Amino acid sequence: MNARPTPSAEALDRLRAIVGPQGFLDQAGDVEPFLTDHRKLYRGATPLVLRPDSTDQVAAILRLCNESGIGVVPVGGNTSYCGGATPSADGSQIVISLSRMRRVRAVDPLNYTMVVEAGCVLAQAQAAASEVGRLFPLSLGSEGSCQIGGNLSTNAGGTAVLRYGMMRDLVLGLEVVLPDGRILDSLSSLRKDNTGYDLRDLFIGAEGTLGIITAAVCKLFSRPASILTAILAIPEPAAAVKLLSRLRVASCDCVSTFELMPRLALDMVLKNISDTTDPFDTRYNWYVLLEIGSGGYDTGLHESIEAELSKAMDEGLIANAALASSDAQREKFWRLRESIPEGQRREGASIKHDISVSSSELPRFIVEGSDAIQQIAPEARIVAYGHLGDGNLHFNASQPTQGDAASFEALAPRINRAVHDLVARYGGSFSAEHGIGQLKRGELQRYKNPVALSVMKSIKHALDPKGIMNPGKVL
Ligand code: MLT
Ligand code: ZN
């Protein structure tokens, strides 16, 4: 990235004028939350945070920034894991927060769609769908603060991908402001429209490097009449993979959540997070959080899945099972899973990987990946958890219980290389759901297919020839 001058006072004044007095922050204390990322890996600087309240304002801002060559960093809920929304440290970039654009513009339960603005918090979008008896199924630990625009820009995944897909699968049309200020209005609610290139997909997962998504048409779904939630103790990951395919058949693909959790992760949660309890009296090596939704009529979901689970138990695929018998218990089970990142954070330094391989190959990957890490850091604690049904694990290593954080973190380059090289041998991805941001730019250059990389660069150049959009991220 070429160094850019800091924006002139005159340009900053013109930007302030576009959004009016309620629409900007420029005092040190006010801009502070926008200068660091969720994991505190990066620290940036900016002279101005703009908070536009309309698509037209976003368009005017980008037009001016494009003319003046000012770098623009779009930010949603600032929950990125890869520093995708943190400005550079030289103070040359302005930040655009979409948080004032949070309206649900329309809900059409008969067409199973709703139009929401980019700054709408995910939990609000879920609630808007629920109010009309529909489901918006994207589900993430950060759903109380992450925003639809960020979910789209990072193609968020989460814990219901198995049944409903990633954010890319949950959207029909988009409204996007292009770097030169033109508005690409593709807010279409159509499910079929074969009229040329699919421009929409370019902006999903682009992390704000091609333009700013300002609104989206989200797909809605029917709500299951009943939901079965369980924690299963399993002997080993291979048993979990077999079990999942059995449950998919038995439920006709209604498994929405199938999350793998090693004992070590559960230990970290039970030790560090209040109001958590072990679901069993006995310790097991591995667990799965399972959730299956019925159809619209509750046609004996619990009975048939319980029968399937007890058959699996007879065959040794399950060692024990705890089924939630109330909403409160269901929440307790979810709390165990969703507290893993925080439970692990409180155990000191961790080196994180967000990998995916074929689900059927995950068990072998876990063995080989653990071995690869422990050859470099024999005492590292491997915390391999996550979305087994999607072939996506957070394949993390926590610092040894004895030892200091800094010497463990110094091993990160070697550990990352070993894990990501192994992922590449499996034909997998080094970033399954957390994106590239600043953190994984080097890995993108190293592992992405060179032809794909060159096409990405051509697209970037075609849409953003001056390179103003989220400079220093992704490419
Ligand atoms: C999760 O699945 O919990 C997140 O994607 C990963 C994390 O928060 O570490
Ligand atoms: Zn995850």
How would you portray this structure in words?
A hairpin with a 4-residue loop joins β18 (381-387) and β19 (392-398). The mean pLDDT is 96. The longest helix has 15 residues, at 237-251. The chain contains 17 helices and 19 strands. By secondary structure, the chain is of the alpha+beta class. Among the domains are: 104-222, Uridine Diphospho-n-acetylenolpyruvylglucosamine Reductase, domain 3 (2-Layer Sandwich); 226-342, Alpha-Beta Plaits (2-Layer Sandwich); 348-434, Alpha-Beta Plaits. Zinc ion binds at residues 386-387, 394, 433. Zinc ion (ZN) binds next to β18.
Number of helices: 17
Strand order of the largest sheet: 5-6-10-8-9
Low-confidence stretches: none
Distance between the termini: 9 Å
| Beta-strand content | 15-25%
The CATH class designation of the domain at 104-222 is Alpha Beta
**Roughly how much helix do the residues carry, as a percent range?**
25-40%
How many strands in all?
19
Based on the coordinates given, report the CATH architecture of the domain at 104-222: 2-Layer Sandwich
- Give the overall silhouette: globular
Instruction: Please tell me the overall pLDDT.
Output: 96
**Ligands:** D-malate, zinc ion
Q: Structural class, from secondary structure content?
A: alpha+beta
> Rg, please?
23 Å
Largest sheet, strands/sense/barrel:
5 strands, antiparallel
CATH T-level topology of the domain at 104-222:
Uridine Diphospho-n-acetylenolpyruvylglucosamine Reductase, domain 3
